[in-house]
């Protein structure tokens, strides 16, 4: 069931698009026109990443939009992050370099600024920023900051797309369970891509730490939660994570062959998923 907030998002985006004399085809990017149309009519939800992409195509920042709908009071970090993402989409290197300098000057004692260093490091590959690992004493404050409502928008727009690699294993597990509970409660098909990418990123964290037990438990839980989602792609991504864990544990060629078979499937049906999974598998030094 689509909540009232999501309906309001779609209706306001429609008003913005019409007011700017833009067609759906001009703003839809990689989305189907029918998906955008249903979103505008309050009949479907889309991922926040897709919403931000639509807004950018319409010449509007996410911060400006959220101010209009009154759903969020953007923090400094959210405004800055949105500016960075918009600059990245425009390949505005001077703006990105300036952002890096601002971050470097404002990381001491500021949790949001510390998170932003990691955001730029993880999201903007054309600029190198020294990797930042959060101190254990900061984890509780970070947890409070990252788990503000509304959960789905925080998780999708920020946490799992940007923050997972730099958080503690315990906080990763907490956020993972929070996300999976939300997905199980809503069973929204538009979120299956988020679930798949989230699982992949969390798997990278735990596998790099050699934490096989947590990895396997995560996969088992995910399969239970996703059983009713009727998503072959998400089921296959969970299987791919499990195969990667088995390969790294046993270095067995049969597991590697199975991984390559799964990748070949994704390369055929969804090149974006294929490229994303290829990146994290190589990050784990799986020879694919």
TrEMBL record:
GO terms for molecular function: DNA binding. InterPro entries: Cro/C1-type_HTH, HTH-type_regulator_Rgg, Lambda_DNA-bd_dom_sf, Transcription_activator_Rgg_C. Residues 117-226 form the HTH-type transcriptional regulator Rgg C-terminal domain. Pfam families: Rgg_C. This is HTH-type transcriptional regulator Rgg C-terminal domain-containing protein. It comes from Schleiferilactobacillus harbinensis DSM 16991.
